[in-house]
Amino acid sequence: MTISVSAVRTTHWILTAQCPSRLGTVDVVTRFLREQGCYITEQQSFDDSSSCRFFIRTEFRPPEEGEFDAGAFEAAFAERAAPFSMAFELTSPERLTPVVIMVSKADHCLNDLLYRYRTGQLPVAIKAVVSNHPDLAPLAEWHGLPYHHLPISAETKAEQEAEVWRIVEDSGAELVILARYMQVLSSEMSERLAGRAINIHHSLLPGFKGAKPYHQAFEKGVKLVGATAHYINDDLDEGPIITQGVEPVTHADTAEDLVARGRDIECITLARAVTLHLQRRVFLNGSRTVVFQR
Amino acid sequence: MTISVSAVRTTHWILTAQCPSRLGTVDVVTRFLREQGCYITEQQSFDDSSSCRFFIRTEFRPPEEGEFDAGAFEAAFAERAAPFSMAFELTSPERLTPVVIMVSKADHCLNDLLYRYRTGQLPVAIKAVVSNHPDLAPLAEWHGLPYHHLPISAETKAEQEAEVWRIVEDSGAELVILARYMQVLSSEMSERLAGRAINIHHSLLPGFKGAKPYHQAFEKGVKLVGATAHYINDDLDEGPIITQGVEPVTHADTAEDLVARGRDIECITLARAVTLHLQRRVFLNGSRTVVFQR
Amino acid sequence: MTISVSAVRTTHWILTAQCPSRLGTVDVVTRFLREQGCYITEQQSFDDSSSCRFFIRTEFRPPEEGEFDAGAFEAAFAERAAPFSMAFELTSPERLTPVVIMVSKADHCLNDLLYRYRTGQLPVAIKAVVSNHPDLAPLAEWHGLPYHHLPISAETKAEQEAEVWRIVEDSGAELVILARYMQVLSSEMSERLAGRAINIHHSLLPGFKGAKPYHQAFEKGVKLVGATAHYINDDLDEGPIITQGVEPVTHADTAEDLVARGRDIECITLARAVTLHLQRRVFLNGSRTVVFQR
Amino acid sequence: MTISVSAVRTTHWILTAQCPSRLGTVDVVTRFLREQGCYITEQQSFDDSSSCRFFIRTEFRPPEEGEFDAGAFEAAFAERAAPFSMAFELTSPERLTPVVIMVSKADHCLNDLLYRYRTGQLPVAIKAVVSNHPDLAPLAEWHGLPYHHLPISAETKAEQEAEVWRIVEDSGAELVILARYMQVLSSEMSERLAGRAINIHHSLLPGFKGAKPYHQAFEKGVKLVGATAHYINDDLDEGPIITQGVEPVTHADTAEDLVARGRDIECITLARAVTLHLQRRVFLNGSRTVVFQR
């Protein structure tokens, strides 16, 4: 199967940065870009007075003449950023981010991500699909993707996670997408993946954490169900929220009906969060996130 | 000021009923209506297999000839309903339900309800506005409504609630609307008002119960805030949910911004729940509700 | 690949009926069901005073003892229905409705429908996928479905439609799903498929009919885009609307971005409409529809 | 009645600017602010390649020491902006923008705006309420606002508009809010108010332009109704859209029901658009708008 990358825009770059709040943080970025002859097409900045952190995201076109030297750009900007203790990243939207997708038995999110992947809507290079069950192997194989069936039990958890980590490291994956992977990651694993593992929880957090959230929702008699995409952290279902989605439900929906209805919301919410992350629109801000929506 | 009741429909009646699940519950209602020559314009029934309860709501037009005798109708139907242990209620949509509204300082929900009331969109007769603060008196007075300022403290709570109860009883109120009334009702009060007191909580329950839910939401970094209208019961913010509403928020919204943005959702959600209740579209079903939406 | 039908409920049946408005239409159905010892689990009826048409949908469980004889049921009910000129249909939710899906090049709706199909969420037997382009053959073939590539031009239209019709007839298809099939059906074809062909138009009708609705939307500068699922009729994009969905967009979205963002809404809206149709929740009511939502 | 302005933030300023696209437009703004010692709390910029226009909005805090001289700031920035043909505006969010509200008979939008006004949520100084009907005088008077009843007919239109214009001019109104004002403004009036008159149309434009959109929607059988807030221009209901809102409806909703349900959406949509405008988040971009949401 041919994977096509749809280049929606002409070549451009994304520069993101963050640092402690102080005077001059926007100017550091914009003045440098001006000097470099870079044309800013879109920019958003936010200064969080409660956390005293500054965040900025800039999309720009490099100068028309000559070849854009990303390395030189980064080296030069590093000098400007240093006095501000400003961390930054230069990204090309056309670059395919290496990812690993983790699943269990539910296939809807994987199916949705793979669809977007094969039609070029997700700028990723899927290095592997990892699962504690064998069920989703056919779907991965039809896409020509390696599938790792890594069963897990209380006794084998450490070894299984070590194997998962090996796959992540060896593949150079920069993002792990937990697409309804139903196992709880250990503290060590969560720490290793801090800021680069996105999970979809099938409820509107902080409501209905843990297992069987749709059944909890049914018992509670809520009139809305939803899903939350968040970065993994040490606490179960507590990581910084990226995006959430909702769907109205009625008294006539059984718990199984809620499960079925929730699938669409989970797919869309996870895909949105992953896309925002890949577009470098999401910044960790303590226990929260800053999201520069288009 | 003239309060006009907008009679949207020609004269018709609403018959609601519920009972334990068993064969023949729908037929009990429809056969009787047919015999009475009543014309059914809309009907919804639901049999809950988990709670083994049956619910039905029927809108009908009485026979064209003669005068409809509601009392005779009820007496005759009672005989049919008895073998099914079927509780029922016959209501006229044009009847103005006596209500008492309870508020504290926040005025948005009261303002919204009074607007709907004075333009005839809410078929209520507002008997009194009760508050533990004096702030909203002008708004009530402009509508020509009695305003009872009943301050409350830990020591005076029992007396204050006794006074509230006296007002409710004396006025014949059939519904108490807690429109951002910020005091927690005692168990006794909650029990007395079971099934006929609707509260608006400014969060998507079960998330963020208790005080300052918007501040809790801000700390948590959610990307959606909302409101929940529910019947009061003994547990704080735990009563059967009638309806919920949501609003997206961003990292740029401070806690005060969330408070401001949430007002619209609270108004709409409470108004919807009250309207559904007045239209007899809501049935208590254990800790949940059955809602026959239009 | 194994296609599994998820039997969410115990065995039950769906009886739908419609006729000219008159007294006794609900009773005709419920009395008969009572006599037959059928247990009504859910029922909705609506009497449209503007079109003078009555609609009813009932879900019921057959008597526990004995085998349910659908044919006998229908014959007996036909006698009751006749004096009311009542058309009715008895359906089993477990029955797989034969369908034909028509596509062109865009694959998102087909991908979505086939996912729901293979996971047993859509009670259909897909007889064929028909397209005027060859692009989507691999997707159909992976699902083991016959794919008919039927190119079309102004000159060959009549023949192509004749071939489409042959496929529909021979397969016994009861529903044709136009999943972003971009050709306009002729009047004859539309008439033949009246009430049993659902199309997804990628705009909020009546806005932006015809070609390139996202480009029209971009030019107009709307802040919401959407999709409309409707039955095909003789007028382009004018058929009775079943359901609609929306998505907010911004100034930063180019026309291509709108196309991309609209895909999710199109998939969900079409799937919802098809599901409602299969559940017999949708009734044609002149140029409109009656939809008995769960 | 006391009108309180809720000062949510510490003192800060808003600088907006726009000009033809070219290199260096962001830097012009940010470098100047840096030199002035101004602290940027939030900034958004967008370069529209299709219209070749650049837009930027910056919120900043002035230097802590000394008094901020807005006039000097503007004079100095004008010199920097001139070579870019950059139009700009410096605004204080605490400043109350003088407005005139125009209404006819429907009072829901006026009621909603006046509530927000009297509770300090809308930073406006309402100079007058103008109507072609007398009905809404009591509401305006309770708020202590001048009410001008200016009847209109085909013959008196020019004179009536002249009087409206006089009120707008004399009051120094910078924004005219057409809150369900049902008369069509003449070309001359539209031109005079270009970019500073916001209208709420009770449909999702471009669908259902003109009169009785809810009745049109009912006839069409749509499953969503909505409202569109837009700037007035010469074409009826064609002005640049600021924001839109939707509400689901069903077959059971009559045209009058749609009217009733639409009120909430109209109020919220209009209030949102007015708020965005007052926050200087909206820019005219040809027939469209750029909206920098929070």
TrEMBL record, chains A, B, C, D:
HAMAP family per record: PurU (MF_01927)
GO biological process, one term: one-carbon metabolic process
Catalytic class of the enzyme: hydrolase
GO molecular function: formyltetrahydrofolate deformylase activity
Record keywords: Hydrolase, One-carbon metabolism, Purine biosynthesis
Coiled coil, from the record: none
Sequence ranges assigned to domain Formyl transferase N-terminal in this UniProt record: 99-274
EC number annotated for this UniProt entry: 3.5.1.10
Entry-linked CDD domains: ACT_F4HF-DF, FMT_core_Formyl-FH4-Hydrolase_C
UniProt pathway annotation: Purine metabolism; IMP biosynthesis via de novo pathway; formate from 10-formyl-5,6,7,8-tetrahydrofolate: step 1/1
Catalysed conversion reaction: (6R)-10-formyltetrahydrofolate + H2O = (6S)-5,6,7,8-tetrahydrofolate + formate + H(+)
Protein name: Formyltetrahydrofolate deformylase
Listed InterPro entries: ACT-like_dom_sf (IPR045865), Formyl-FH4-Hydrolase_C (IPR041729), Formyl_transf_N (IPR002376), Formyl_transf_N_sf (IPR036477), PurU (IPR004810), PurU_ACT (IPR044074)
Function of the molecule: Catalyzes the hydrolysis of 10-formyltetrahydrofolate (formyl-FH4) to formate and tetrahydrofolate (FH4).
Active site: D237
Similarity comment: Belongs to the PurU family.
Entry-linked NCBIfam families: PRK06027.1, PurU
Pfam families with a match to the protein in the record: Formyl_trans_N (PF00551)
